[in-house]
Write a structure and sequence with these properties.
Layout lengths: L5 E6 L3 H12 L3 E7 L3 H10 L4 E3 L2 H5 L6 E4 L6 H10 L3 E5 L6 H14 L3 E4 L8 H9 L6 E10 L13 H4 L7 H11 L8 E7 L11 E8 L3 E8 L5 E9 L3 E8 L8 E7 L4 E4 L7 H18 L7 H20 L3 E2 L3
Parallel strand pairs: 1-2, 1-4, 2-3, 4-5, 5-6, 7-10
Antiparallel strand pairs: 7-11, 8-9, 8-15, 9-10, 11-12, 12-13, 13-14
């Protein structure tokens, strides 16, 4: 007899929320049973695309449904704390899009509530599930580079989408732009340098092409210091074209170079590659599974199903999500003050 499907509710049905919905539907062992969306337009789209799901205007009504096991929250960042707490209080498992919160205090609340309610809290850092970025982690853990000493994560891309009602360009709702996409790269850097210990400080700089909105940072770079004189560079520009992400790792024995490119971040037709250097020979490592955030989103749903059913580990825990927020907030402090900022989660 097959196991019962994990029944998902989804809060938020904007552009990214629609991808979440599709990923749930594609996942073996998952069933999308309810969607809450704020606007009439979004609700109409949800009913048309997913007629099997109950569509609601108020997320609280979704949380009151007894047949929902897990809730996927895909809403503007400033709502993560309020809605995340409500999900946990309703006794549901929670998948929360990054950033986990827009302050460390919000993250602390969510971590504590998940513990108190004995519910899973997964954070949407889907790059950890990538066949490409995950293979980099495997090679590091296998000791290929020796002791990793330096990590570079670099993004060159088009400007951000506005988001529903332009929320992503409203600093009061986004928190800060470092929390928007660089947070993924801070998470990767900490993941790759995990053997060094937790990050301790960051120095960052940023600027903007938008004279009326200097808080919306088009160019951003940070140096993150880890114990043992190890460090990472996280850098991005939104003043470029397409979507090109590069990771480089060097250590005491070797080096890794991974790259991903697409016309857009959500393309299903990217190019990607991984090269290694052992001190003598450069080799190309074959990546047979296609990678990109749409594919990793599907993997994230499968991971969560296994975590709920069988107690398998989460790819990104609440503690990981809190550290990523703490790193971004410290980086923003450094941008604002021009000084090195301490990191503490």
């Amino acid at each position: 007899m097959s196991e019962r499907a994990i029944r998902f509710g989804l809060i938020g049905f904007g552009a990214w929320g629609q991808h979440h919905a599709s990923s749930i539907v594609k996942t073996d062992g998952a069933e999308l049973v309810a969607i809450a969306a704020r606007t009439e337009t979004s609700r109409a789209a949800a009913k048309q695309i997913h007629p099997q799901a109950e569509v609601l205007s108020d997320y609280r009504k979704l949380l009151a449904l007894e047949d929902v096991d897990c809730v996927d929250v895909v809403v503007p960042s400033h709502l993560h704390h309020e809605i995340g707490l409500a999900v946990l209080d309703a006794g549901k498992h929670l998948l929360l899009e990054k950033p986990m919160g827009i302050s460390v205090a919000e993250c602390n609340d969510l971590v504590q509530r998940a513990t108190d309610k004995d519910r899973l809290l997964a954070v949407g850092h889907e790059l950890r599930l990538s066949s490409l970025w995950g293979r980099v982690k495997e090679l590091i853990d296998e000791g290929f580079v020796g002791e990793p000493q330096y990590v570079l994560v670099e993004l060159s891309r088009n400007p951000y989408r506005l988001g529903s009602d332009g929320w992503r360009y409203d600093i009061s709702r986004v928190g800060n732009w470092i929390l928007e996409e660089p947070i993924h790269f801070f998470d990767l850097a900490r993941w790759y340098l995990s053997n060094a210990g937790d990050p301790v400080s960051v120095y960052a700089s940023a600027n903007s092409r938008q004279p009326n909105h200097p808080e919306l940072q088009d160019n951003f770079s940070a140096i993150v210091n880890f114990p043992g004189n190890r460090y990472a560079v996280v850098t991005q520009t939104l003043s470029a074209f397409e979507h090109h992400l590069t990771v480089k790792v060097t250590g005491t024995k070797g080096a890794l170079w991974a790259a991903w490119s697409g016309a857009k971040d959500r393309t299903r037709h990217p190019t990607f590659a991984l090269q290694t250097f052992d001190g003598e020979e450069v080799r190309t490592i074959e990546i047979t599974k296609i990678t990109g955030e749409l594919f990793e989103l599907e993997d994230q749903m499968a991971m969560l199903v296994q975590a709920i059913r069988a107690g398998k580990p989460l790819s990104c825990t609440a503690e990981d999500g809190r550290w990523s927020v703490a790193m971004c907030l410290a980086a923003q402090e450094s941008v604002d003050t021009g000084a090195v900022a301490k990191i503490g989660a």
